[in-house]
Structures are given as C-alpha cells and as structure tokens.
Amino acid sequence: MLHEMALGGIFYSPMLIFVLISLVVATLLRTLIHKSVLSRLVWQEAWFDVSLFVCVLAVVTYVLTSMD
Amino acid sequence: MRTFLKVLITLVMVALATALGLWLWHYYMYTPWTRDARVRADVITIAPDVSGWVSQMDIQDGQDVHKGDVLFRINDRRYQAALDQAKATVSQRQAEYRLQAHDYQRRRGLSSNAISSESLDTAQLNAQSAKASYEQAQAQLESAQIDLERTVIRAPTDGTVVNLNLREGNYVSQGNAQMSLIRAGSFYVTAYFAETKLPPIDVGDRASIHLMSGAKELTGHVASIGRGIANTNTTGNNQLLPQVQQTFTWVRLSQRIPVDIVIDHIPDGVYLSAGMTATVRIAPEDRDDSNRDTPPEAIQHNSSEQGAAPRIEGATGAGSAPPGQSQ
C-alpha cells in the first residue's frame, strides 16, 4: 500500500502520514517508559528517544504498507 | 553492573534503530513505485478530407460513437457538381475516343494506294491519345466520387468524442483536425519512474494503480519500459553541432523514464479519463509471465551477455531485460 494519500486534491507522500503516526505513537511510548521503572534502564535518554522513534516508524511503515 | 546494563540496553536500541532505519530507507527509496503516473488513451484526431462548411452535426460533445457512425456532414453541392462535371467529361472523352477509334478502323481497311502511311499513323496515334484522355477522365470521376463520399465524416473506430467545438455552419479545411476521439477501451497508464527505481522493473511485472480520486485499486502489468528520453545536450545549433551545457547543477535529479502499464482490471464504478493522476507500484516478485512475449530461456541466455556484446533487441522482445538486473 505504498501509494500517495490524496487529501482535498493534494497528494501527500505516505511517509508524511507514517511520520505523523509514528510521532504520536513514539511520544506515547516514551511517556509510558519514562513514567515506569524502565526509565532507570536507559543510559542516554536522547539516543534512546531517537532510536525509539526510528523503530516505531519502521514498524508503522511495515504494518501499514502490508495491510492490503 | 547496573551501568553496564543501562549502556547495553541503550546501545541495543540504537543498533536496532539503525538496522530498521536502513531497511526503511531501502524500502522507501528503492521500492519501484512512483507518484508520477498518468492515465492515457489512444487519441484519434478527426480531420475532414474535403473542405467546406458543415451542413449537419450528428454528434454532441462527449458522445459515445461506434465505428462507421456519421460524425458530421460537409455541404456536398460543390462536390456533387464536380462529380457531374467529371461524369460529363467522361462521356465527352468516350465519344471522342469512339470517334477516333472508328476513324482509325475505317482508314486501316483502306488499301495502301488510297491512304498514305503518315495519315494512317496519325489516325492510330489520335485514337491512342483519345483513349488515354478517356481513362484520365475516368480517374477524375473516381476522385470526384471519393470527394463526394468524404463529405460525410464517419467515426474511424468505437470511442468517445472529446473537445467538440465544431458547430453547424463552421467552415472546415481539408486536413485540419476538428475534434478528437478517445478509442474505447484503450486506456493505459504511463508511470514515470526515477532511474534509481528502474532496475527491478521488468516487462510483465504486475502493477497496482491507485487513482487520485479513490481508494479502489486497479491492476495491470508492465507492457514496456521506455528506451529513450530527450537529452538537451544533443540539440544542435544551426551548424548541427551539439550544444553541450558547460554547467550542471550540483544537485541533479534522476531522470524519469516512462513505463507503460496495461490495465488488466478496472473495478466497477471507476471512471477513467485520459490525463488522470495515479500512483503506481510495481511488484517485481510477482511476475506474470503469461503476458511476456519472450521465452524465459531467451532471457537467461541474454543475461550472460549483459554489458558485453551488443544485444539483439529482437531476441528479447520489446525492451525486456533479464530479471533482477536490467539496465
């Protein structure tokens, strides 16, 4: 399903949609992790956050493109 | 120990992100899909073969027509008159020919004492000349007949009339296109693929087409991959020397190569118009070999010679290349 999303006559790159979804998911995950005990297992917080976002983005892309 | 675990977990996370990021990059950048595709169709421009003013319009804009249907009629009085004139000329030339032939027949029967050989030759040649004139008139009659028939313009094929601005009373000139006809069922998609995404694409690959208008998926297969696009460096000056650009931009975009896709299935309710925007994705792993006109062994044979000896295009079909490593 790697194709453009049309909204109001304008094509959007699917990556834009995926990034927005991933941003929300990653933010939620990050908040959960930092609220829980898991935050003590993280060494460099920024590194971890960026990595988490990339992982979520890859998973979101894979799931959404292989849906149909 | 605690610190070690923390560092380890973070680094594992970073490594995982790198791997997934690389996969994502590869997937997004090299999956053969393009946002730049257009629906196209066979367009036939209708031009009258004779000049004149339009006496009757039999169609409306956007009307579906069948092959042979009358599109419009040109006033035929002048062509009718030309036909009558041609008929009259034929009769006249026929009479002349008969007269000359008769003359010759009569003179040929005379003895050589009664007529000079010069007069006999003249009579024979006059008869021949009259015969040629007669045949010429017959050809002109046929031409006038064709002109008259072509004052009625008929649809050359099944299709839909597009961009009809012609009205009754307009003067149309011979050979000037007056409207276009989209041939029925001739829709196809041309997808413009970046060079970088071209390698996995091959003739026969299944394609999934999404129109801008809706979520319904059209399916098709790759019919041909373009063999050439324009190159501005080859345009010549007035001495036909190539005008090669001295500068090139630091950031250069990859060229787009047109890939034609035959539409195999159009879902119900999808209305196609030539020029519509589409997104096309090719599935190289899902090749439909039934549509390929090249036997697989020919491709295998071909792949061993890739980049070496000049290839004979005829042997590989319309621009098909070995799977997985086309150029």
From TrEMBL, chain A:
Pfam families: DUF1656 (PF07869). InterPro entries: DUF1656 (IPR012451). The chain crosses the membrane at residues 6-29, 41-64. Keywords: Cell membrane, Membrane, Transmembrane, Transmembrane helix. The keyword Transmembrane helix applies. This is Uncharacterized protein DUF1656. It comes from Kushneria sinocarnis.
Automatic annotation (TrEMBL), chain B:
Residues 186-282 form the p-hydroxybenzoic acid efflux pump subunit AaeA-like beta-barrel domain. Residues 283-295 have a biased composition (Basic and acidic residues). It is a single-pass membrane protein. InterPro entries: AaeA-lik-b-barrel, MdtA-like_BSH, MdtA-like_HH, MFP_Efflux_Pump, RND_pump_MFP. It is found in: Membrane. GO terms for molecular function: transmembrane transporter activity. This is RND family efflux transporter MFP subunit. GO terms for cellular component: membrane. It holds the Pfam family HH_MFP_RND. The keyword RNA-binding does not apply. It comes from the Bacteria.
